[in-house]
Specification:
Helix content: over 70%
Strand content: under 5%
Number of domains: 1
Amino acid sequence: MNDRCHRSASASLPAFLVTLFACAGEAAARGPFAAGAMASGYTVPLGSLEPLLAFLAVGLWAARWGGAALWQIPIAAVAGAACGGLLASSGLHVPYAEQAPALSLIVLGGVVLIPVRVPYPLAITAILGALNGLVAGGDRGDPLGFWAGYGIGVLIAAAAGIGATGIVSQILGSFAVRLAGAAVAAVGVLVLLGHL
């Protein structure tokens, strides 16, 4: 595929994904589950700075890989988060788990920043998703509804990251996307040091 076709395809797919997941999220937020566990799960990755930036960075990283990674990396994040949440629900306690979201910001921001492809993106994303899931997990009245909502929220944030990569790359170039990765990593460092 030539470069112009690749740019066109990579610009239209993120727009489609953002629209698709935004509609799904809106339906979940206004549908029969709006006041329940699904809405509670939906708001976790979209309602606070650390998970929102982490899953936006998942989308930035997926867009940097392109191809099948556009859907595989976000799905790995959801699967990892659900596994981490199940482990937390079963009573697993991981020391220093509260620092996991900040660590995921540093790692995800770093892999977006560096100009080389870091190997094993699915495994890395799943592990970082699991760390976020450990923090978000715990005792839930309706775990299925909560994790369905959480997964929708993760996919919306990742789709927004994919879409932002397409738009920013076209307007400002790929270096601006790398700077966004640096900003995500910097927020992670600030959170880890207790400044945010």
